[in-house]
Amino acid sequence: SQQGEEDPQALSIQEGENATMNCSYKTSINNLQWYRQNSGRGLVHLILIRSNEREKHSGRLRVTLDTSKKSSSLLITASRAADTASYFCAPGSSGSRLTFGEGTQLTVNP
Amino acid sequence: GAVVSQHPSRVICKSGTSVKIECRSLDFQATTMFWYRQFPKQSLMLMATSNEGSKATYEQGVEKDKFLINHASLTLSTLTVTSAHPEDSSFYICSARNRGGGTEAFFGQGTRLTVV
């Protein structure tokens, strides 16, 4: 398995603005997942995008995947204070171990 | 959605004692469970992968005699921190994959261990 590298490390925005965070990885994957972690809690699965997909939507979330650049982005539109959390990407293959990078700490100010 | 229950959520123990943390998949069967530890403001560090009915696979640098993992059934895995020391104080999180397939992992709520 491999871990992704999230960028930026920290992001602070105002409520209602959009938040974009990026993930880069090194070797070929079958899929890439994004997770959210609220402070002091476990991770929550947000979305999975497969290697043959370029874009995927789920509510206010939009994920893109560029396998040629080995990168993914997570866009949260119309952010809310409740979106404040750490976000992690997990590039991988079916059945692979799940390992995580440092994440992006998003702060949405009311 | 699938639920993973981790217990206890918080535990304080004395140095030298052992602590057991349980991770249960409530509404699905998990052939694979993962155990992580997380220090404040740091990422999750994978400690070991446990497969039902077989020995856990530990990551490099993780002492298997100190962190005992048992995955005796398709719905339960336990992590026992033996002879705990203050430096073992951390946030421990488990996750599980559904036996029915899929890549998504479901996480427990974590256990805050404090060794005094």
Keywords:
heterodimer; A: 110 residues; mainly beta; 5-stranded antiparallel sheet; 5-stranded mixed sheet; 10 strands; B: 116 residues; 4-stranded antiparallel sheet; 11 strands
Protein architecture, described:
Chain A is mainly beta. Chain A is 0% helix and 54% strand. A five-stranded antiparallel sheet of chain A has the order 1-3-8-7-6, with no helix packed on it. Chain A has a five-stranded mixed sheet with strand order 2-10-9-4-5, with no helix packed on it. The termini of chain B are far apart. In chain B, strands 2, 4, 5, 6, 9, 10 and 11 form a seven-stranded mixed sheet that branches. In chain B, strands 1-3-8-7 form a four-stranded antiparallel sheet, with no helix packed on it. Chain B is mostly beta strands. In chain B, a hairpin with a 6-residue loop joins strand 9 and strand 10. Chain B has no helices and eleven strands. In chain B, 0% of the residues lie in helices and 55% in strands. The A-B interface holds A 30-31, 33, 35, 40-45, 48, 88, 92-103 and B 4, 6, 32, 34, 42-44, 46, 49, 91, 93, 95, 97, 103-110, 112.
Give the helix tally of chain A: 0
Shape of chain A: globular
First-last Cα distance of chain B: 37 Å
The Cα radius of gyration of chain B reads: 13 Å
Distance between the termini of chain A: 38 Å
The radius of gyration computed from the alpha-carbon positions of chain A, rounded to a whole number of angstroms, is 13 Å
The percentage helix of chain B is under 10%
Q: What does the largest sheet of chain A look like?
A: 5 strands, antiparallel
Order of helices and strands of chain B: EEEEEEEEEEE
Strand content of chain A: over 45%
Question: Could you spell the SSE succession of chain A in H and E letters?
Answer: EEEEEEEEEE
Helicity level of chain A: under 10%
**Mean pLDDT level of chain A:** 94
Topology:
The complex is a heterodimer of chains A (110) and B (116).
Chain A: E1 5-7, E2 10-14, E3 19-24, E4 31-37, E5 43-50, E6 55-58, E7 61-66, E8 71-76, E9 85-92, E10 104-109
Parallel strand pairs in A: 2-10
Antiparallel strand pairs in A: 1-3, 3-8, 4-5, 4-9, 6-7, 7-8, 9-10
Chain B: E1 4-7, E2 10-13, E3 19-25, E4 30-38, E5 44-51, E6 57-58, E7 67-73, E8 76-81, E9 90-98, E10 105-107, E11 111-115
Parallel strand pairs in B: 2-11
Antiparallel strand pairs in B: 1-3, 3-8, 4-5, 4-9, 5-6, 7-8, 9-10, 9-11
